[in-house]
């Protein structure tokens, strides 16, 4: 543990740092960037610990990273004499590091003895002789990483200027830590070493800054006494109320110093004899006093410019660290640069050699008229950014060169009033990503000093853009993986057997034979049938029997998604395609690539989307909503509908060309009433399925109940039968299935009594509610053969007690003669 010098102890009333102090801090930041390029993250902190001791008072440095699984802050000491092989773990809720991580605010504990918070942790520090702490968050625009802590053995106060500098340093450490966590160390080192030339230039600039700083301070010191003299002269003149116009009506005294010639002080008067004999000498004295101001003007201005430039670089570095996207980065950077450079236009252009295009990724053009907007694209050799990209060097374009390019993009630049454009390549890890472009409306363009400043900024922008690209790719892959897991897990089965399709009828066997025939061909199949007939099961059978069985089976119900969202769900969308499109979305077509896409209720697709679906069926390609890049897929489409699509085509509700493209191999499923011989098999299947689920033992199904089930028409087909069987199992209390036969009305032509059934809609036209009830009871009595009680009697069919039915018959005046026949 090192001793702390007393030279940098701060107090609450400390003044702002001197220029030298500001310059030294900036040098530390630049040197930290150099270290990050050549060292790993722990080595970077070791070096920083040594560098910062020249500026601030502290005895130890540690950093903490949060473990998400255990919710603990893992603290590691940086100093060798305090280094421990394993990290010390503290609770996130009970430690200073955890508080800073959660609140994202610096924490200063000037004297641990006077602070009752985090007492267990502070007592541990106090046992090692440490009494003051300053803890800062290590955070980037994408995530919270941890904290960095400086500690001292004596109570110490860090003022706002010091905290501001330490926050900037923590931002740099956060960027280095994030890179070390997201990329391999050799990759990071290679990326940082590629900045070697820029760092050498910065080292030369640091040397020049140091020399200029020393010269400027020496000049200021030498002129201090002269300035005090001038102030005394001005005070004396003000006190005596002398008027130089009255004393020296017209006199000119040369104002010169050793380095500057030709500066004169002019005094004039309209009177021809306005000068006393002593006036020239006094004027020369006053001219000498004025010379002090002129001589002092240059060093003060130069120092001010240097401070402004350094402050701008620091602000841009902060923007690069904290900006969450390229748009915010360009806006913040442009606002900082305008203090030093006359800028009207700033953009970030990314180049894609595979498509030979340049895209304006982000733009800051407050006075623009809309001729150039974000996402604007141009050919590489038809815009200044693309030409600089191909040349791989900084290029300056004046008005004449823009006119010679002659492209629409160049004409739009001129149409916006821009006359000078500077394009700087963005090189990251040996790869040119695009260009940083600035422009103004002046014919004179940019000075050499301004271009040098932009060249210093460009490598940092390149690294930030590369980080944005990497994190966008990672986020896109994570999103795609999450969506695939969510959507495909319930839709994909580990195995499929035709035994999952229950039935023994001739109609069902014919359908299964068609599925086996078409499955290996890869042709589009249109599955027709009423709702609830099992169209999705047949689609899954075709997929499982096809060569694509190992790939994805993706389902989309076209009727269940609002029309405005169906295009995005099917084809996907790009970020910014509409108001709520905050990120890129992969559509169902891409998820089904090399697999099968099942479009249920395809007849409900709106007319405006049908041409785009037709293109997928014909050419296997499409564009995402809001995108321009054509995406090719290899997908087989299976479609199903319960509508009469041919009738919809005749009514101009469905495109005929899409219908014919879907109607390559139609498969029509029979309704359950058309294969009544399958009803007993399905009943036994569903009863056992639900009995196992509800832990019930059902051994028999009454014959009269099975008879009623077979006679019912099942307008909802298998889905209705499945739901009815679940209700029966719920009602069953013994080993024999209880079937509420009163809910079923046999509508087939032949009943037990041979009487023709009365349709419900016919009953509704035969009088009042009481008359309707009377007719219905008579009808059920006839179907039951006049039997009132018993499991096959009318009371059981109507779902009521025998005595209740007899009471109703008596009240309604139903005689035996009405139903006995």
List the helices and strands and how they pair.
Layout: H1 19-38, H2 41-52, E1 60-67, E2 72-77, E3 88-91, H3 96-103, E4 107-109, H4 119-127, E5 132-139, E6 144-152, H5 160-182, H6 185-193, H7 196-240, H8 244-247, E7 251-255, E8 263-267, H9 279-322, H10 326-337, E9 345-352, E10 357-364, E11 377-379, H11 384-391, E12 395-397, H12 399-405, H13 408-415, E13 420-428, E14 431-440, H14 448-491, H15 506-518, E15 525-528, H16 535-544, E16 553-557, H17 563-571, E17 572-573, E18 585-586, H18 588-591, E19 596-600, H19 610-619, E20 621-623, E21 630-632, E22 636-641, H20 645-650, H21 656-662, E23 665-668, H22 679-694, H23 703-711, H24 717-731, H25 760-763, H26 769-783, H27 794-798, H28 802-812, H29 816-820
Parallel strand pairs: 15-22, 15-23, 16-19, 19-22
Antiparallel strand pairs: 1-2, 1-6, 2-3, 4-5, 5-6, 7-8, 9-10, 9-14, 10-11, 12-13, 13-14, 17-18, 20-21
Helix pairs in contact: 1-2, 1-5, 1-6, 1-7, 1-9, 5-9, 7-9, 9-10, 9-14, 12-13, 15-16, 19-21, 22-24
Account of the protein in words:
The protein has 29 helices and 23 strands. The strands form six sheets. It has a six-stranded antiparallel beta sheet. Strands 11-10-9-14-13-12 form a six-stranded antiparallel beta sheet. It has a five-stranded parallel beta sheet with strand order 16-19-22-15-23. The longest helix has 45 residues, at 196-240. The protein is elongated. By secondary structure, the chain is of the alpha+beta class. 32% of the residues are buried.
């Amino acid at each position: 543990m090192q001793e702390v010098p007393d030279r940098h102890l701060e107090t609450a009333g400390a003044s702002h740092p001197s220029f030298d102090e500001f310059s030294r801090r900036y040098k530390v930041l630049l040197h930290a960037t150099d270290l990050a390029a050549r060292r790993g993250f722990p080595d970077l902190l070791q070096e920083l610990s040594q560098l910062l001791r020249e500026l601030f008072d502290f005895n130890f440095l540690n950093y903490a990273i949060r473990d998400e699984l255990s919710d603990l802050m893992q603290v590691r000491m940086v100093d060798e004499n305090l280094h421990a092989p394993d990290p010390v773990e503290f609770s996130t809720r009970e430690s200073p590091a955890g508080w800073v991580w959660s609140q994202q605010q610096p924490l200063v504990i000037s004297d641990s003895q006077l602070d009752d918070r985090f007492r267990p942790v502070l007592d541990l520090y106090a046992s090692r002789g440490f009494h003051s702490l300053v803890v800062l968050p290590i955070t980037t625009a994408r995530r919270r990483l941890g904290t960095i802590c400086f500690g001292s053995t004596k109570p110490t106060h860090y003022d706002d200027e010091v905290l501001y500098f330490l926050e900037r340093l923590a931002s740099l450490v956060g960027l280095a830590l994030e890179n070390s966590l997201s990329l391999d160390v050799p990759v990071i080192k290679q990326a940082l070493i590629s900045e070697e030339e820029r760092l050498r230039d910065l080292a030369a600039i640091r040397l020049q800054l140091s020399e200029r700083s020393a010269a400027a301070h020496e000049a200021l010191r030498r002129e201090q006494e002269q300035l005090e003299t001038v102030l005394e002269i001005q005070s004396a003149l003000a006190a005596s109320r002398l008027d130089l116009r009255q004393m020296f009506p017209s006199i000119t005294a040369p104002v010169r110093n050793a380095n500057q010639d030709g500066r004169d002080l002019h005094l004039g008067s309209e009177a021809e004899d306005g000068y006393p004999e002593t006036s020239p000498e006094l004027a020369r004295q006053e001219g000498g006093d004025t010379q002090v101001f002129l001589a002092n003007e240059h060093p003060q201005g130069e120092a001010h410019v240097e401070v402004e430039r350094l402050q701008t670089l620091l602000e841009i570095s902060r923007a690069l660290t904290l900006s969450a996207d390229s748009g915010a980065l360009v806006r913040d950077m442009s606002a900082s640069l305008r203090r030093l450079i006359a800028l009207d236009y700033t953009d970030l252009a990314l180049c894609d050699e595979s498509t030979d295009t340049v895209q304006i990724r982000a733009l800051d053009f407050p006075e623009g008229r809309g001729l150039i907007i974000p996402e604007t694209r141009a050919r590489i050799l038809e815009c200044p950014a693309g030409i600089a990209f191909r040349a791989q060097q900084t290029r300056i374009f004046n008005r004449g060169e823009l006119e010679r390019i002659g492209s629409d993009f160049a004409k739009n630049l001129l149409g916006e009033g821009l006359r000078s454009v500077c394009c700087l390549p963005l090189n990251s890890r040996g790869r040119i990503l695009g260009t940083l472009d600035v422009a103004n409306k002046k014919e004179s363009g940019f000075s050499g000093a301004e271009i040098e400043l932009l060249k210093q900024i460009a490598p940092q922008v390149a690294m930030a853009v590369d980080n944005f690209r990497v994190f966008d790719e990672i986020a896109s892959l994570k999103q795609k993986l999450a969506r695939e897991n969510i959507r495909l897990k319930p839709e994909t089965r580990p195995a499929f057997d035709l035994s999952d399709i229950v039935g023994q009828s001739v109609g069902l066997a014919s359908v299964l034979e068609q599925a086996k025939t078409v499955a290996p061909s890869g042709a589009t199949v249109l599955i027709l049938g009423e709702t609830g007939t099992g169209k999705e099961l047949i689609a899954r059978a075709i997929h499982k029997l096809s060569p694509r069985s190992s790939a994805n089976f993706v389902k989309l119900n076209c009727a269940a998604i609002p029309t405005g969202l169906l295009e995005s769900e099917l084809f996907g969308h790009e970020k910014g395609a509409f108001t709520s499109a905050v990120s890129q979305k992969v559509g169902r077509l891409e998820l089904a690539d090399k697999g099968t896409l099942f479009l249920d209720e395809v007849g409900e697709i709106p007319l405006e989307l049908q041409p785009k679906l037709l293109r997928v069926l014909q050419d296997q390609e499409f564009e995402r909503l809001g995108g321009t890049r054509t995406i090719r897929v290899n997908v087989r489409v299976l479609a199903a509908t319960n509508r009469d699509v041919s009738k919809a085509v005749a009514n101009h509700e469905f495109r005929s060309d899409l219908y014919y493209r879907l109607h390559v191999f139609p498969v029509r499923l029979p309704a359950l009433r058309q294969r009544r011989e399958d009803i007993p098999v399905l009943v036994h299947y569903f009863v056992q399925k639900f009995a196992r689920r509800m832990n019930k033992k059902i051994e028999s199904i009454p014959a009269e109940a099975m008879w009623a089930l077979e006679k019912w028409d099942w307008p909802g087909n298998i889905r209705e039968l499945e739901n009815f069987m679940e209700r029966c199992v719920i009602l069953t209390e013994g080993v024999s299935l209880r079937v509420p036969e009163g809910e079923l009305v046999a509508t087939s032509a032949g009943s037990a009594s041979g009487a023709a059934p009365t349709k419900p809609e016919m009953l509704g036209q035969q009088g009042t509610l009481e008359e309707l009830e009377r007719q219905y009871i008579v009808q059920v009595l006839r179907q039951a053969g006049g039997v009132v009680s018993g499991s096959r009697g009318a009371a059981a069919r109507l779902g009521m007690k025998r005595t209740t039915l007899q009471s109703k018959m008596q009240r309604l005046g139903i005689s035996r003669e009405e139903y006995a026949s």
